[in-house]
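If your schedule permits, I should be very grateful for your opinion on a structural question. I have a record of one protein: its chain in single-letter code and its fold written as C-alpha cells. Kindly check, if you would, that the fold set down in the C-alpha cells agrees with what the sequence suggests. I remain grateful for any guidance, and I place the record below:

***
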Amino acid sequence: MRWEFTPAATRALLRVQASIPPHAGPEFDPGLELLAALTEDLEGAGAAWLASMGVRLDFPQSEIFQPKEQLPSLAPLDEELFRELGDGCSASRELLRRLPLALTAILRSARQFASEHFSDSTINSEALGAAVFERSRKGKKWLLGAGFNEEKTTETILGTPLVLDEPLNLEPSETPPGLIRLVDAVGNRLREGLRVLEDHARFVSENAWLVESLKKMRHEVDALLVKIPGTARLVQSRDVSGDSGAGLWTGAERERKDTNDIQRSNWKRIQEALRSLEEHAKVVAPFLSRNLESLRYESYTLEKRSNEPPSGLLADSALMLLVSRDCLLGMEKTVRESIRGGVDIVQLREKSLPDSELLDLAKKVRLWTRDEGALLILNDRPDLALLAEADGVHLGTTDLSPSDARRILEAGMLVGCSTHNGADRDAYAQAGADYLGVGPIFPSQTKIFHEFAGLDYVRSFADWHGPPWFAIGGIHLDNIGLLRDAGAKRVAISQAICQAEDPQAMARALRLGLGIKPK
C-alpha cells in the first residue's frame, strides 16, 4: 500500500528528512522541523492554516525555548528521497521504515486525521500540523506558546473539516435510485460478512487482534458509505420485494462444512462486496474508490494473517543473533553488518541494565533491525518488548508462562521459550510457544551450565511437527556441521558473531555451514 501526500506535505516531509540527524534515536522529536517546513512554505496552505488557528509566525521563540530548541534552519533537500517521494507524491512502507519512529508516528496520525476529515487518506499540510499538535511534545509547546487556540483546535480538528492544499470537487451529484439501492444492498452484505468473522474471531478462535482489526474495518466502511451522495435515502430506497436477486440461493450458500468454511465464505463475501462498491463508486463518488480499493487489499492481508499463526513469520528464518553490549565492533555495527550477512532475527539479551536504560537500548536496536529488515526479540521482558515495538519476547524456564506473557503483548507478537529436554519441549509447545530454543548444545562463554542437552536432544526433533526451533549454546563454525548432520536447520549464535572482526562475513559463513545459501 502506498502512502499519498499532497505536494505541500511532500515538500514539508522532504525538508524534514534532510534535517534528520544521521543516527536519530527514539528520543528525536521532529515536530519543530515540521513546523519550520510548514511556516516557510509560502506555496502550501500550512502557514495559512496555522495563522487561522491563532499562531503568530513571528513569535519570539526565546520566550518558550532554549536556543537549541528553536525552529531550526532546514537543510537542503535530499535529492534521492525527492525522486522517490516527489514523483506522484507517494511513498512506500519500506521508505517510511527508514524514517525515525517519532516521525512515522506523526505521519500515521496525519494519515488517520486526513481519512477522517477529508475525502481520502491523502496527507496534506493541515493534517501534518494537526498531527504535530497531537504527537510532538516540543511542537505542541511551541504552538501553544505562539498563540495556538486550543479551543478552536478541538472545534476544527475534531469537528468541521479543514481546507485541502489543492481544491477537490466534492459537490454531490444526483445518484440514480438503482445505484443507491446497490450501495444499500452491497453495504449490508459487507457489514454482515465482517460481523460474522468478528463474532467467530471473538468467540471461537478468541483472536483479539483479528476482532479489533475487523471492528476497525467495519467502522471505516460505515464512514466511507455515508460520503456517497444520496446515501441519506438508503433505507427509503430499499425494495426487497422488487429485487430481482432476492431469495435466489445456490446449494453451496445453504451449506457450511465446518467453521473454516464459514470463514472462507465470509472473506469472499467481503472482498466481492468491496470490489462492487469500488467499481460503482467510480461513477457516483470517485474520491472514495481508492479508499475502497485499499480496504479490499487490507482484507486479503487480514485473511492471510488470520490463517497464519505468528510462527509463520519464522518460516524462512535460519539464523538468530543473541546480542548484548559486549560486541567487538560495538552493538550497532555488529547488528547491522550481521543482518546484511544473513541474520534473520536479533534477540537482545541484557540482564543487568535498569529498565529505563534497557528500554532505550531496545528502541535503538528496533531502529537498526527495522532499517536492515530483521525481526527483533527481547529477552525475558514482554512489557519492554511491547514498549519498544519489538516483534516478540523470549522466555526462560523460570520466566513468565507464554499465556501470561500474551496478556501483556499485542496480538501477533512472537513468544519463544527455552527448552533443555523433551519435557520442556512438549510443555511449551502445548502452552502455545511460537518457537523453541533447544539447548544448550555445546559449552558457551555467555552462560554457565552444569548439564548440556547435547546433540541427542537435537536428534530427538527428527519427527517433530511442532513450532520451529533453534539450536543454541556454544555454536560456531567448527561445530555447526555437527548440528546440521544432527538435523538442525535453525541456530541461535552469540559470541561467534559478536566477537567477529567481520560480522557480515561470519553470518554468511554460518548460513553456509547450515547448508543454506547466503541472502
Remarks:
- The first strand starts at residue 2 and ends at 4.
- The chain has three domains: 2-158, 177-308, 311-513.
- Residues 175 and 230 are 6 Å apart (CA to CA).
